[in-house]
Amino acid sequence: MAEPVTATTGTLANTSLLAAVVVSLFPGIDAGVVMGAFAGAVVFILSAKDISSLGKVGYFVVAFLAGMAGAATCTSLLVWLLPTHVTVTPSVGAVIAAAVSVKLLLWLIGEASNPLALLAKLRQKGGTES
Fold first, then answer.
1. From the CB of residue 43, how many other CB atoms can be counted at a distance below 10 Å?
2. Whole-angstrom Cα distance, residue 93 to residue 29?
């Protein structure tokens, strides 16, 4: 039985492996973080709906860069949230940062159209109603 891998999938896998090898040659860049950011960006793109192909490429680049930049912060947050016996590596933080960051930014942009409504929501949830 033939494997369900297309030429595009094989090319994408080879390209990502090549990128990880090339990036691992640079000192100070963790290859695990690069692969984690790549995986998180792919998860975001695969879950995105109603976006053009060019838009998906743009969102992929932004998600990838956000995963690289936010890996340490997201890892620290996960270490703080999870029990002490759970080990969280920076690559896991990169996956989550890449997958969540663009979605969060798009939500904030949508809420920015009416900032007073966002402030009213925050006041109601905070229990500071007068």
1. 16
2. 15
Q: What's the confidence (pLDDT) of residue 64? A: 87
Amino acid 48 reads A
Q: Which residues, including other chains, have CB under 8 Å from residue 21's CB and lie 6 or more apart?
A: 31
pLDDT at 74: 93
Q: Could you tell me the pTM of the whole model?
A: 0.71
Residue with tokens 């896998």: 13
Are 96 and 120 contacting, i.e. CB atoms less than 8 angstroms apart?
A: no
CB distance 93 to 75 below 8 Å:
yes
Return left, alpha or beta for 61; rule: phi > 0 is left, psi -120 to 50 is alpha, else beta: alpha
- 81: helix, coil or strand? helix
Cα gap 117→20, rounded to integer Å: 44
On whether the CB atoms of residues 17 and 48 are closer than 8 A, the answer is no
| Residue 28 or residue 94, greater confidence | 94
> How many beta carbons lie within 10 A of that of residue 41, not counting itself?
27
The model's pLDDT over 17-58, given as tens digits with 9 standing for 90+, comes to: 676 677 767 788 887 888 888 888 888 888 878 888 788 888
